[in-house]
Amino acid sequence: MARQPPPSRQQMRIRIAQAAARLMAEDGIQDFALAKRKAARQLGADQMHNLPTNAEIEAELRTHQSLYQGEEQVQRLRVLRRQACVVMRLLGRFNPYLTGSVLAGTAARHSDINLLLFTDSDKDVELFLLNHHIAYERGEKRFRFGDSHRVVPVFHLQHGGPADVEVAVFPTDAIRESPRSPVDGRALPRARLAEVEAMLG
């Protein structure tokens, strides 16, 4: 029996994208870089060359969710967007915006809800959380703006809903300049409370 020829570079690129999408959809991996490296290792591919882009993986993720998680995905997005609305109302004084996979419609089984706040004092946010007895962990996160990066405070909230909530705090004047999306490098899509409510019908 003749041996099958090894897959071409393009075939391997597609297979890595599909495997990475499956890891994100099924195993709770939320980081594109980690998903593609793990997928490449599983497939025995050279991790340093010809890896798929984040946009290619996101396209495969949408396909996977449509084929294998159709109704589950619809219900998941509805639940997470409802939870996002509750938290956005609670944090309304800090100009909240929804972003990330819950807005994009690609939230997987273990995805966080990602919010951006715009206020001149992250200490005010922290004091608000303390006064409202909301459990949180404080950290930092890097966002890309054009050719540079900015590190901002981040609060990881355990709000009691089905998903944890990641809240990144930006200065008020940063509302005019959107950070770059990790998927395609364009302006990060974001939505106000009224827009998220409209998605729920």
Helix/strand layout:
Layout: H1 9-26, H2 32-42, H3 54-68, H4 70-90, E1 97-99, H5 100-104, E2 113-118, H6 122-131, E3 135-145, E4 148-158, E5 165-170, H7 193-200
What does this molecule look like?
With 201 residues, the chain is of the alpha+beta class. The protein is built from seven helices and five strands, in the order H-H-H-H-E-H-E-H-E-E-E-H. The chain has two domains: 9-68, no CATH class; 71-200, 2-Layer Sandwich (Beta Polymerase, domain 2), CATH 3.30.460. It has helices at 9-26, 32-42, 54-68, 70-90, 100-104, 122-131, 193-200, and strands at 97-99, 113-118, 135-145, 148-158, 165-170. The protein has a five-stranded mixed β-sheet with strand order 1-2-5-4-3. Helix 1 (9-26) packs across helix 2.
